[in-house]
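Letters spell out the chain; backbone shape is given numerically. Both lines appear below:
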Amino acid sequence: MPKRLGRHPEKALTAVTVKTRKPGRHADGNGLYLDVDESGARRWLLRITIHGRRRDIGLGSASLVTLAEARDAALEMRRVARAGGDPLAERKAARRVVPSFAEAARTCHEERKDGWKNGKHADQWLNTLETYAFPQLGTLTVDRIGTPEVRDVLLPIWLEKPETARRLRQRIGIVLDWAAAKGFRDGENPVRGVTKGLPKQKEAGGHFAALPYDDVPSFLTKLRGSNKAGPVVALAMEFLILTAVRSGEMRGAVWREFDLEGGLWTIPAERMKAGKPHVVPLAPRALQILQEARALARKPDDPEALVFEGAKPGKPMSDMTLTMLLRRMEVEATAHGFRSAFRDWTAETTNTPSDVAEMALAHTIKNKVEAAYRRGDLLEKRRVLMKAWASFCMREAAGAVLAGVREAVAG
């Protein structure tokens, strides 16, 4: 397009000439132009200097924006630019559609999907927000959420469910950080100082209630003779104790994970807390429990079927099932606490090296140097350890059998 020479005319256009100008760029003055295409389409353009840089800003179609409106818009943008502002950025901000907290949370969750260790963790992350945050924050746009709004969400569960509340606080903070990174909100994340307006939580003990390890054999004897739970639940509890695994690892076990001939159980990475596969050597009693569980199974020959199935077909038993069993048996311990009993027994009654015991519990090695040099899984040493633990746990049962034999012989 040929460059026009001479001074820009002052208000050179009229309402009539806007409609009759031929293709080209026609100046109205003060940086405002009418662009006419060969097709006859007409649009407004403002040429302006912003922070030392020349910028061209479209002001809309001439069929929708009148000459007077275009001049007013151009004047306002020039005023902003002269005051040191950025009219283009302000217009983009005005047009920006700020998402609601619920929309932001779901988008943030989707963008992070490749970082989850497994689907269960991903679901829990969003479910916590849906349950506790969405009722109050869900419809609010993220730029309207401040410390008072976050506090009101956390307060009802801050003392009643402290761990859930802390996780909720963290997840709200992640969503609002995401919103800030996307340009949907400014200022400090309101989660940062919200605890100043909340009551002080009691310090957590940090440990799960556990039986002393000397009481584990008598507990198992009581468990085998108890009618407080169905046979599958009782087998699941005993298997959990003998293998020293986490409850979720036991409850999610399927038959394809087991090598019964080799006496090994390989838990896949996606079901492990550390995100790495874990091989558990199985003592003879643990293998016997699997055979008994298979005899009770709905689908004993399906490799994808759960070993310890819950009441609903195809669904694992809940962690609460084990908790309720312990309550009915009036045992002041948690299912997870039996791992502590195993660790105490290992430390106090055996000469097992600490790294063998820690690997049996699938604990992550915190020392990075040691972790880098650790290559093996100490399987054979752990096999000896787990067999010894099972023998210890079975000692009362063995004693009862021996007593019965002696009584029969004496009779």
Observations:
- The domain at 213-410 is CATH 1.10.443.10 (hpI Integrase; Chain A).
- The beta strands are 24-29, 32-36, 42-50, 53-61, 258-259, 264-267, 278-281.
- The mean pLDDT is 84.
